[in-house]
Design goal:
By secondary structure, this protein is of the alpha/beta class. The chain has 10 helices and 7 strands. Helix 8 (197-213) runs antiparallel to helix 9 (222-233). It starts with 11 loop residues before the first helix and ends with a strand.
Length: 294
């Protein structure tokens, strides 16, 4: 297995203002409530810039060991199934460049904002990327994929909808193709996870402190960043927790997958200043899964 170069830095200081600018006009609006996801996609890159949250970078070694053999075997067709921004595309670029290979990547999401960010990143690095705005549950494609990659995506779906999601992944893969995914395990979590009032206050305080410390790198005022932090913490949309590895194993086997690897490993905090709350780094266990369609 080829050893890649050190994990490259991402251009977050450039793309975070872009995400904040485009999210209000591009983000998906729920047809029932009319609410937009701009509170999420417009702020996410700043949370990454401050090094507060868990991202594919934290699991780069897992993606390397899970995907490098397939890349070496000539597999090139990749589907990124759901994404907050270009973080997973960045990881894939790192892996394919290590082997001198050029992938053909489809990035799928319901929202146009992360798709635009992926197109921006792909143009910056000369990648062949097709951005598709679609619900994964309704998506179909004439040519099967070699691999499907996600990060912390299952929690976007209620437990009763997850079998349909994993079955769709199975349909989109060629025989021998693989799903490579990571998801947090929360054994004692309630049905839906959000910020407590204390956590929301802590997020606001830590974001303001990080903004003051990074004035030379970012273009956002304390007032704007505080408003964004409040919107993020108080958003009605919540995460549906995955409570056990057994739940994941049953889900993939039920869809017809063979589980090649299921490992649970912790992700520690990278910064002692990271606030508490959903998606924040530190003290969490993540299941790392490689599932094969036979």
């Amino acid at each position: 297995m080829t050893t890649p170069a050190p994990y490259p830095e991402e251009p977050l200081a450039v793309s975070a203002p872009l995400a904040r600018e485009i999210a209000p006009s591009l983000c998906h609006r729920d047809p029932a409530s009319g609410e937009s996801c701009a509170w999420y996609h417009g702020f996410w890159q700043y949370l990454r810039l401050f090094d507060f949250i868990t991202t594919p970078r934290d699991h780069a070694e897992f993606y390397r060991t899970a995907l490098s053999p397939a890349i070496a075997a000539g597999q090139r067709r990749v589907l990124i199934s759901g994404t907050a921004d270009y973080a997973l595309l960045h990881c894939l670029r790192w892996l394919f460049e290590a082997q001198g290979a050029s992938p053909t990547i489809t990035v799928l999401d319901l929202c146009a904002t992360p798709l635009r960010l992926n197109e921006w990143y792909a143009a910056r690095h000369g990648l062949a990327v097709r951005a598709v705005r679609s619900d994964i549950l309704a998506y179909s494609h004439a040519s099967p994929f070699d691999m499907i990659c996600t990060h912390s995506f299952l929690g976007r779906f209620a437990p009763e909808d997850r079998p349909r999601l994993v079955a769709r992944w199975h349909e989109l893969l060629r025989p021998g193709g693989r799903v490579v995914t990571v998801n947090r395990i929360r054994p004692e979590a309630p049905e839906r996870v959000g910020f407590t009032p204390d956590q929301a206050k802590g997020l606001r305080e830590r974001v303001l402190a990080a903004t003051a410390a990074a004035q030379n790198r970012i273009d956002v005022s304390p007032e704007v960043i505080a408003t964004m932090a409040d919107a993020y913490a108080h958003a009605k949309q919540k995460t549906h927790p995955v409570r056990s590895v057994a739940e994941l194993e049953e889900l993939f086997r039920g869809a017809g997958f063979r589980l090649e690897q299921v490992i649970v490993a912790p992700v520690g905090p990278r910064s002692t200043q990271a606030p508490l709350g959903p998606t924040m780094s530190g003290g969490a266990n993540y299941a790392q899964i490689v599932a094969i369609r036979d």
